Amino acid sequence: MPVLNPRALNPRAPNPRALNADTRHTVTITLNGRPRSGQAHPRLLLSDFLRHELGAHGTRVGCEHGVCGACTVRLDGIAVRACLTLAVQADGRRVDTVEGLAEANQGRMTALQEAFRRHHALQCGFCTAGILMSLSDWLERTPNPTDEELRDMLSGHLCRCTGYAGIVRAVMDVTGQAIPSGESAHV
Amino acid sequence: MKPAPFDYLRPATVADALAALAAGGDDARVIAGGQSLMPMLNMRLVQPRLLIDLGGLSELGTLRAEDGWLTVGAAVTQAQALARPGLTDEVPLLAAALPWVGHVQTRNRGTLCGSVAHADPSAEVPLCLVATGGEVVLRNAGRRRTVAAADFFLGPLTTARAADEIVESLRFPLAAPGSGHAFREMSMRHGDFAIVACAATATAERIGLAVGGVADRPTARSWPLAPGGALPPDLDAHLNAFAWELGGDDDQHASARYRRELVRRIGRTVLEEALSCRS
Ligand code: FES
Ligand code: FES
User: Fold this and answer.
1) Contact: B2, A65; criterion CB under 8 Å
2) Is the separation of the CB atoms in B186 and B173 below 8 Å?
3) Where are the alpha helices (DSSP H) in A62-184?
4) What's the gap in Å between the CA of A80 and the closest CA on chain B?
């Protein structure tokens, strides 16, 4: 019995210029400043490409539908969900992940990361990479956020451990602002 | 939570994209920011055979105020629109509502046209388009047509767009001098889908209220102001009738009764705000 190709059931010819669904295609990104290449089917998510193809496991995967923020990376500098981005869409573009923060800082933690450590802004750390990548983009454009602005921005991330208070303290500290007084006794 | 396989096309021009869409028929989908479509692909609620990426097409990057309209092209992200300095004067309702769309991180990729094409009944951008009397510009390989927002949304995730058309741009009327606008919504957490979203507009003669999250599509009503420019004296009765007409259902997020109460209360609040902020 001949094996039936599912495409044979559909009379429409595939678009010859499209990347074929069943083939792996070379995707090259600039990951934390270095060119890296891997292979991706068109349906491969950027989050899985980073982790499984390039071995960059710093980026976490939680919900895979854009809700939790664990997978947030910077695409051409802008914080985006890696689980809502295809690897083929990132081809030729710059991707920055949590590994790049210390790499760009002579191998030491950045001031933001140090503040996270000081203020217990993480516990299990699952949400942390995403939050750091969001903040590293957002603080460049919002260098002195108010408490309200910061909490609004953090609403794009779910943290199941910290209750967010330590994260708010860390950001207020690293941006040289007063730490909300009601918060300081919270740890 | 991984998409089913599809071919992926990054067209060089809009004409290329439209030709591929016409050839692909129902099996093809377009993607721009992907902040609504990617979750649906990941959950396999949609399984296209061909995905056509409009994201990189500079032809679709129009964001321009001209001849009384703000035109927003298919590649314009919510973050780009929000960062436009003139937006609070041009379409103040949109400027007030955009911060409620998803989160910073999803607004960085999500487009206004994508939200309209997706047509979630609780989404803010479709609501603003209906509330302001905006238009949707649709284009296929052969022609372009314009549909009024009020005629575009047909139900949940259902619109007047044909399978071979893309939402090429949105047209929001520029706010008239002396008009007022207000937006509020109720959701369980900030950035979640709205249980009820209310957008109000006020002119010298009329007030209008558009409601999202209750009926199967964003729905608008308007009423004449009382002499002297005050709110109509029987506004509560109008709002109550509107709340019942919307016909919301009980679901896991809220009861129909709670939704009606929100329409009456938030509706009155935004109408008062819109009236008092008329310039
Ligand atoms: S894994 Fe991407 S947002 Fe949750
Ligand atoms: S530190 Fe555990 S989820 Fe945030």
Assistant:
1) no
2) no
3) 99-103, 111-118, 128-141, 147-154, 165-174, 181-184
4) 5
Domain B58-173 = CATH 3.40.640.10:
no
Pairwise CB contact (< 8 Å): A155 & B190? yes
**Residue B37 main-chain phi, psi, to 5 deg:** -75, -40
pLDDT in tens, B205-262: 999 999 999 999 999 999 999 999 999 999 999 999 999 999 989 998 899 999 999 9
Among A124, A110, A80, which residue's Cα sits nearest to residue B110? A80
B230 near A CB under 8 A: no
Ligand 2 atom nearest the C-alpha of A160 is 3
Following CA atoms B62, B65, B71, B74 in sequence, which dihedral angle do they give, to the nearest 10 degrees?
A: 30
Q: What is the ipTM of this complex?
A: 0.93
Tell me which residue of A53, A51, A59 sits closest to A81, measured CA to CA: A59
Ligand 1 center from residue A10 Cα (angstroms)? 34
Distance A37 CA to ligand 1 centre (A): 23
Q: Which residues of A touch B5 (CB under 8 A)?
A: 21-22, 41-43
Q: Domain boundaries in chain B?
A: 7-53, 58-173, 180-276
Work out the pLDDT band at B188, boundaries 50, 70, 90. Answer: confident
* Radius of gyration of the CA atoms of chain B, in A: 19
What residues in A contact B105, CB-CB < 8 Å?
69, 72, 79-81, 134, 156
The contacts of residue B39 (CB under 8 Å, 6+ apart) are A65, A66, A84
> Hey, what's the torsion of the CAs at B139, B141, B142, B146, to 10 degrees?
0
- CATH number of the domain at B7-53, please? 3.30.43.10
CA dihedral B123, B126, B129, B132 (to 10 degrees): -50
Best probe residue, ligand 2, of A68, A122, A157, A167 (max atoms within 8 Å of C-beta): A122
Domains of chain A: 25-101 (3.10.20.30), 106-174 (1.10.150.120)
Ligand 2 near A124 CB (within 6 A): yes
